[in-house]
Amino acid sequence: MDLITPGTGLIFWQLFGFLGLLFILIKFAWKPMLAALDERESSIENALKAAETARNEMANLKAENEKLLADARLERDTILKKAQDASVKMVDDAKADAAKVGAQMIENAKAVIETEKKAALADVKNQVATLSLEITEKLLRANLSDTKSQKDLVEGFVNDLKLN
Amino acid sequence: MKRKILALSLLISAFLLVFNSSTFAAEQEEDKTSFIMHHVKDSHEWHLVTLGHTHVTLPLPVIVYSGDRGLEFFTSTDFQDHETHQFGEQYAHEGYYIDEHDHLGRVDHGSFIEFSITKNVVMLFIVLIVVAWMALSAASFYKKNGAVAPKGAAAIIEPIVIFVRDDIAKEAIGPQYKRFVPYLITLFLFVWFGNLLGLIPGAANMTGNIAVTLVLAVLTFIITNVNGNKDYWKHVFMTPGVPPLMLLIIVPVEIIGLFTKPFALMVRLFVAITAGHIVILGFIALAFIFESYTIGVASTLMVTFINLIELLVATIQAYVFTLFSAMYIGSAVAEHTHADH
Fold first, then answer.
1. What is the pLDDT of residues B40-72, one digit of tens each?
2. Do B41 and A3 touch (CB under 8 A)?
């Protein structure tokens, strides 16, 4: 058989053999296989997309969480600050009250002391007057037994009166 | 891995030597190389090995159809000497003979068509069975397991399918690639397995036969032109952007171009594979022409080397044949505007 002359037998068998192979493989091999490959590729693609979505959601969630956390922190700080302020105010108020009450008490005490003092002084004055009277009485009984001494006394009163 | 390939290649080379050793006992210088062409061409019997003077051959059916005698079946042994397995006109049988060049002839010179199961036809059947078995077992994997990661035959076939689909069909054809993918995959697998199995010592040079490549090229030609769209035919008969007078020259060139494309396909595969076989056998023949051990060792090394290259060529030629088929189909179905020319 010649090298470059195609043999009719081989052409015949090749044509029908190859067409038969083509037909069988298209029907039973390539169609199911290409469909399976497409299916797998699309499922992989879907899985990748789902993963991407999940990742985005996770990121969103994380951001949200962080925001919540930051908000919570801020609120905590505010509350703490408020509490601190309140406590400081309370202490200050208490201090102011205490000072006021103290001052009041001191005032009262002073008034009482003043009153007591006055009373005491009045008492002392009375006592002194009584005592003076008693002394005077005793002196008078002793000294006014003679005329001279009576005279002197009267002169003395007169001098005093003049001075006044 | 490399060592394994090398070892396999050496083994194949050694086999080749054994398979062809009988030829080298020949006295004539011409006979020492005649086995090369004998191997490369088709034959009515499959000569496996010669042990001493015993030829181990696979007799093959000879099928002839003629208008006056109808369909007739013979075997190749009917037409040859039983001792030497030599064909010749003197061994004519029932009005037919096979001459020394393995040509079937009719004694009364009447017309006939031959449908013999020759060596290449048997090889063709083997390749068809191997490809079909691989593809079908791969497909059954998907049927059984659904869309999961491939195993077994599917793991071999799937990368090829994806490669042909994505890197050949999608690239060369464009958006309409899907309906041509099955043809291209079948084409690729057929040519590839044909090339690879043809490299096995004792196997036939099937994809290096012009009848085989002719049929494949004609199929591509038919698919291309049946699917040719308006743009494609317009490009052939009213090439845009060309002055009317020039069309007188351009149109015939375009029409010739329609046929040169499949012709190039046919010749490229035939030549590449046949040349590879001839080179390998040529190196083997050297040892017996020079009858020297040194040259024997050197040529065996060379044969090993060429065998490795042939493995590459087998794949490249399958790729190229498929790629060019896809490109021709792509040119026929492309929806392009002529503004971008």
1. 888 888 888 777 777 888 889 999 998 888 888
2. yes
- Look up residue B77 and give its DSSP letter: G
N- to C-terminal Cα separation, chain B: 48
B161:A22 CB<8 A? no
Give me the count of residues in chain A: 164
Residues of A with CB under 8 A from a CB of B: 1-15, 17-22, 24-26, 28-34, 36-37, 39-40, 43
**Partner residue facing B215 (CB), from A15, A25, A43:** A15
Contact between B213 and B207 (Cβ < 8 Å) = yes
Per-residue pLDDT at B171 exceeds 70: yes
Sign of CA dihedral B91, B95, B100, B103: negative
In the block, residue with structure tokens 């040119």: B331
Whether B211 and A14 lie within 8 Å, measured CB to CB:
yes
pLDDT higher than 70, residue B217: yes
Burial class (CB in 10 A: 0-12, 13-18, 19+), A82: exposed
Distance CA B203, CA B19 (A): 10
d(CA A68, CA A75): 10
**ipTM of this complex prediction, to 2 decimal places:** 0.85
Cβ proximity of B169 and B326 under 8 Å: yes
Give the separation between CA B60 and CA B194, rounded to whole angstroms. 20
